[in-house]
Amino acid sequence: MKDVIEEKVEKILSKMTLEEKIGQMQQISFNAVPAEVFDGMKKTGIIGSYLHVLGSETSAFDESVQKSRLHIPPLFGIDAIHGHALLKGATVFPSQLALACSFDDDLLEEVGCVTAAEVAADGLDWVFSPVLCLARDLRWGRVDETFGEDSFLASRLGAAMIKGYQKEGHVAACAKHYFGYGEATGGRDCYDSEISDRKAYEIFLKPFQAAVDAGSMTVMVSYGSISGTPLTASEKWVRKTLKEKMGFDGFVVSDWFNFQSLIDGQKVACDMEEASILGITAGVDMSMNSYQFFDTAQQAVREGRLSEDLIDDAVRRILRVKAKLGLLDAVRPARPTRKIIGCKEHQKINYRAALESAVLLKNNGVLPLRNVKKIAVIGPNANDICAQYGDWTYFSHPEPNPSAEPCEGIYTVLKGIKERFCEAEIKYAKGCSVLGEESAEESEKMMREALAVVQDADVVIAVVGDVLRQNGEWHDRAHLVLSGRQEELVSRVKTMGKQVVSVLVNGKPLVLTAIEKNSDAIVETFNGGDMCGLAIADLLCGKENFTGKLPVSFPYDSAATPCYYNQYDYWHGGKYIDVPAGSPYPFGFGLSYAWFEYSEPVLSKGTANIGETVTLSVEVKNCGEVDGIETVQLYFRDKVCKVLTLVRSLIGYERVAINAGGRAVVTFEIPTDRLGYYNENCEYTVDSGEFDFFVSGDGLRFRSVCLTLL
Ligand code: BGC
User: Fold this and answer.
1) Which residue, among 666, 596, 658, 656, has the nearest Cα to 627 in the 3D structure?
2) Ligand 1 lined by 473 (C-beta under 6 Å)
3) Ligand 1 mutation target, pool 127, 252, 255, most atoms within 8 A of CB
4) Which atom of ligand 1 is nearest the CA belonging to 222?
5) Judging by DSSP bridges, how do beta strands 218-221 and 613-622 pair with one another?
């Protein structure tokens, strides 16, 4: 198969003119490139890719491709980030951050599969997903798009999603944004990331290596720079590392206008010809939207400033992906019908995704809600589908529509509660807005209405959080608090002596100190997609049990960040003098209606040679009265090492279903050659010595056992 593809690619490449080759390396979108330029390029029929075209518009490109000499179809790329969500009517899944709470590789594969089916049915070929940046600085605007803070979790979930996207062979995945983009200094989007080579290998490249190993057909290079070198111009990180060292044989696309940014943003090139030379030499194979590239890249080759071999390498990679997708076949492979877009089958999977995405952070016994007669639902996010969806949906791109109403078959929390608690009396009032931008008079009126609604309620469900404007590109936040009067709303309700269940609908972890004080239970949903409201109602009434665990740590204070779990621990005092150490809800945390107890973990042998595989087993008992699913997490630490080691590193996890009163033994295989580190010279090394292994179900309490490597 590989040879057939390579043969096909070489045959086409040998016939191509320079203009046709550079055409393949150009990607444009109608909403970024001047209309006359767009139309002119479209007419040539030789443009390699378009983005943000929805399926019904793709046929408009057929004629020019047919008229062109070689009839090479373009790749249609789309930001299907959590479902094919730019298309109204398609399945909108929970955000990546929400999905990561599942710690469920199979679920992520299914989500990828469903998304790819809807994208393919819509006539498109390429999803710009998954995001493999790590959310270690919570101020960064794009935390919601990530799998959280841990590179092992991001590696596993990312690989699973890529497998799902590419399973049926119609759609290419895109691992992005290569790399270290989330680590921008100060959490400021696109700013420089100070990352040493050692840390790059130890943390940030790992999810991309997993993506390469999973066969991701494309990679998107980040807007950012690593220690002062823009990734788009970095031969070291793109060509030498990603392609040569890590073995990536697909193609690399720039991010939005990255070639242009080399000139007027990062100022490392004086004009587009120089930018084209820098980017292509670095190993970037396709230019997103910087449309002058089409002329300047040709010019650079004609002037002898750029070798045509580099162009051939790029075009070969692009054609290889097109060949793998069957786009170069005389008869294109059949795609799913449009009927499957947003179908019931897909929403069933979406419901499961929403269930697994919810995390129970606190419960003093108020949940599950039984025999409640009067429920007050309050809070600005109780009935706001736009806030619930988060970024990258038809609401957010291209036009934000903050007042969007939920449609048929889509559940806000209010709608879910009304449906599941149909025998109770449900009263609703918003209480306040998220941003607090209304007049003082309007604000008072809203608050009064909510307090009136709460008056005779048995329980209050307060749905608070953030809105789209507080997340996404260009939307980094310095203050990680609940904005507007949301904290006051919850506190005033509590003062009325009510039982309060706070449900969070938000893009990223926030400081919950005030909410925690005034809530009897707290549920985190992040951005839960179409079915979030129904899933939450089923969880609140106890029809379903919570299984989610946090993929990211919550901060005690906006200034007490970063607070990710796997830090170095040598730090005088270990904490700020005015804020507790660590995180109130750390990575791995999540409660259930069941209660799990762990035995001491046992190793198959206490001493092993480097290279051997040992097993670690732990017995988990469900001491609760309901069945549950526990995610057993395994961490390790090299006790003494030549470089600083992280306090703990996740090295395994497994979801296990255990009936009430039942037990399960979970066994992890540990290949000891995975216990290494990158030394000062960036060489991967496994040392002999003692290694601690920790098992945990909540990121707070650990049972440990020690292995000696000879
Ligand atoms: C984002 C990418 C996205 C691209 C295309 C950029 O601004 O950083 O994540 O895929 O736009 O929409």
Assistant:
1) 658
2) yes
3) 255
4) 8
5) unpaired
- Per-residue pLDDT of 330-379, as tens digits, reads 888 899 999 999 999 999 999 999 999 999 999 999 999 999 999 999 99
Q: Check pocket membership of 255 for ligand 1, CB cut-off 6 A.
A: yes
- Specify the residue for token string 């794009």: 142
**Token pair 């590419």: residue:** 166
C-alpha span between 117 and 366 (Å, rounded): 41
| 3-class secondary structure per residue, 44-94 | HCCCCEEECCCHHHHHHHHHHHHHCCCCCCCEEEECCCCCCCCCCCCCCCC
Q: Whose CA is nearest to atom 11 of ligand 1?
A: 256
Which DSSP state fits 100?
H
Using 50, 70 and 90 to split pLDDT, how confident is the model at 398?
Answer: low
**Looking up tokens 């720039």, which residue turns up?**
254
What tokens does 631 get? Answer: 């995610």
Phi then psi for residue 203, to 5 deg, are -125, -60
310 pLDDT above the threshold of 90: yes
| pLDDT at residue 77 greater than cutoff 90 | yes
Distances in Å between the alpha carbon of 18 and those of 14, 101, 211, 306, 600?
11, 48, 31, 12, 66
Short-list 472, 409, 654, 592, CA closest to 96: 472
Nearest to 176 by CA among 215, 220, 217: 220
Closest Cα to residue 524, out of 95, 226, 117?
95
Sign of CA dihedral 48, 52, 56, 61: negative
Q: Using alpha carbons, select from 70, 127, 26, 206 the residue that is nearest to residue 392.
A: 127
Residue 382 phi, psi (nearest 5): -65, -30
Q: Phi, psi (5° rounding) for residue 95? A: -60, 165
- In three-state form (DSSP H/G/I as H, E/B as E, the rest C), the secondary structure along 354-393 is HHHHCEEEEECCCCCCCCCCEEEEECCCCCCHHHHHCCCC
Among 51, 256, 286, the mutation site with the greatest number of ligand 1 atoms within 8 A of its Cβ is 256
Bridge partners (DSSP) listed for residue 616: 603, 668
Q: Indicate the residue type of 509.
A: P
How far, CA to CA in Å, does 257 sit from each of 36, 46, 128, 179, 245? 18, 20, 15, 17, 27
**89 Cα to the center of ligand 1, angstroms:** 22
Q: 59 — phi, psi (to 5°)?
A: -65, -20
Provide the H-helix boundaries in 303-360: 308-324, 344-357
Residue 397 Cβ < 6 Å to ligand 1: no
| CB burial of residue 656 (10 Å; 0-12, 13-18, 19+) | middle
The residue whose CB lies within 8 Å of the most ligand 1 atoms, and thus the one to mutate among 30, 79, 174, 222, is: 79
CA distance 417 to 397: 29
The percent of residues above 90 in pLDDT, for the chain, comes to: 93
79 lines ligand 1 (CB under 6 A): yes
* Eight-state DSSP code of residue 242: I
Is the peptide bond prior to 562 cis by the omega test (within 30 degrees of 0)? yes
Query: What is the reported pTM?
Result: 0.97
Q: What's the gap in Å between 336 CA and the centre of ligand 1? A: 26
Using a 6 Å cutoff on CB, does residue 256 contact ligand 1?
yes
Q: Specify whether the CB–CB gap between 153 and 98 falls below 8 A.
A: no
Both tokens assigned to 122: 């819509």
For tokens 């000891």, the residue is: 672
Nearest-CA residue for ligand 1 atom 7 is 256
Q: Is 435 left (phi over 0), alpha (psi -120 to 50) or beta?
A: alpha
Determine if ligand 1 sits within 6 Å of the CB of residue 50: no
The answer to whether the peptide bond before residue 380 is cis (omega within 30 degrees of 0) is: no
